[in-house]
Amino acid sequence: MTTSRTVLVTGGNRGIGHAIAREFIAQGHRVAVTARSGEGPDGALTVRADVTDAASVDAAFSEVEAALGPVEVVVANAGITRDTLLLRMSEDEFTSVVDTNLTGAFRVVKRASKGMLKARFGRIVFISSVVGLLGSAGQVNYSASKAGLVGMARSLTRELGGRNITANVVAPGFIETDMTGELPEGQQAEYKKSIPLGRFASSDEVAKVVAWLAGDDAGYISGAVIPVDGGLGMGH
């Protein structure tokens, strides 16, 4: 039985974030999600937050702490894409993605660490991407931001590990979402050819790995990158 914790998932209103929040609720945790719009799953506390704004992040944490107690598990999942080829990519298309995906994770973890250091306990999970390891044409901004999370997790492990705080990275591959569902069937088949397991993952398959990393059984794992990609990124 996993100890019941207070969990905050950023970007928990849809896709993988929504699935992660659902999984933590199913396991009996107290769960809050941040969202710029929309709602988290039933049973979650939804708070408005924009990870590009430190004051907004601080206010969201204060709201969660007042309702559910200090945040013990934080899942940095909020992310955006603005895909385009390098020569067409504007500086804003690069910096806005990095500001949300990488600096946003920094803002969230910095705020979360205050309570974790006091409690001498914390679980930090970053949602990266196979693209952060493997690369992808047209995603220089996104892949750079997702690769940056690996360095962040490893530095946090060295800095905070002595206080019983772990920091790990989950790197999903292709996931069945509304976005992949809209791809033409031929393109989907082409992508599946490059995946050794021959299929996309369900968002629940990612969520279960995240919940496991935050649980009691993974207490001695830190600074790790766990791929959930059907073998797509092997060797990276």
Number of helices: 8
- The CATH architecture is 3-Layer(aba) Sandwich
Overall average residue pLDDT: 96
Question: What's the end-to-end separation, in Å?
Answer: 33 Å
Shape: globular
Task: Please give the largest β-sheet.
Answer: 7 strands, parallel
**Poorly predicted tracts of residues:** none
CATH fold-level name:
Rossmann fold
Beta-strand level of the residues, as a percent range?
15-25%
What strand line-up does the widest sheet have?
3-2-1-4-5-6-7
- Please write the CATH class name: Alpha Beta
Gyration radius, rounded: 17 Å
Query: What is the H/E order?
Result: EHEEHEHEHHEHHHE
The CATH homologous superfamily: NAD(P)-binding Rossmann-like Domain
Could you tell me the number of beta strands?
7
Give your account of this protein's structure.
The protein is of the alpha/beta class and 236 residues long. The chain is 45% helix and 16% strand. It has one domain: NAD(P)-binding Rossmann-like Domain (Rossmann fold). A 7-stranded parallel beta sheet has the order 3-2-1-4-5-6-7, with helices on both faces. The two termini are 33 Å apart. The mean pLDDT is 96.
